Amino acid sequence: MPFHTLRLPLKDSPCKIVYVCRNVKDVLVPLWHFRCAHLEKEVDMESLFESLCEGVGSFGQFWEHVLSYWRGSLENPQRVLFMRYEEMKSAPSAQVKRLAEFLGCPFTEEEAEHGSVDKIVEFCSLRNLSGMEVNNVPHFTFFRKGEVGDFKNHLTPEMENKIDMTIEEKYKGSGLKF
């Protein structure tokens, strides 16, 4: 099913979708590291950058993919929750509460007072998840830094500007901002 038709089956579907989106600049660097580790050779950052700017990603047309979930969340907010990675990093407790409410199981006052939200945030932290034995898969790099803005250490100002202009063009009029 093409990504742009995502919103059509949602109207009658009982399922709930949680879509986590990350700024494409911060997607590029871990994707590059992952591909280098997976292929066990150096991957050209410039060609990966150009592919991403053109919208070619692992799951099809990247820009339309993101917009389809964004539109779905606007058209059917009871069924599609659009979350930004940057918001999850800056306010993890608020985002865990938001997710729980969306799923129909909000935290009780007692749970909140006893630190349930903080325990979930800690359990789901990159530090904790990356240390779990189940996630220690040889030859793959599933966990890296998880930082917002690390792209500044890898992209040239020209690359950053090109992505910014592409984001502006692709998401224009949608209300989606990064």
From TrEMBL:
Q: Which Pfam families does the UniProt record give?
A: Sulfotransfer_1 (PF00685)
Give the protein's recorded name.
Sulfotransferase
Signal sequence annotation:
none
Q: Which family does it belong to?
A: Belongs to the sulfotransferase 1 family.
Stated EC number for the protein is 2.8.2.-
Q: Give the first-level EC class, as a single word.
A: transferase
GO MF terms listed in the record are: sulfotransferase activity
Which Gene3D superfamilies does the protein's record reference? P-loop containing nucleotide triphosphate hydrolases
InterPro entries attached here?
Answer: P-loop_NTPase, Sulfotransferase_dom
Species this chain originates from: Brassica carinata (Ethiopian mustard)
Classification via PANTHER family: SULFOTRANSFERASE SULT (PTHR11783)
- Source domain of life: Eukaryota
Q: Does the keyword Thylakoid apply?
A: no
Key words, A-Z:
Transferase
Residues in domain Sulfotransferase?
A: 1-175
**Does the keyword section mention Transferase?**
yes
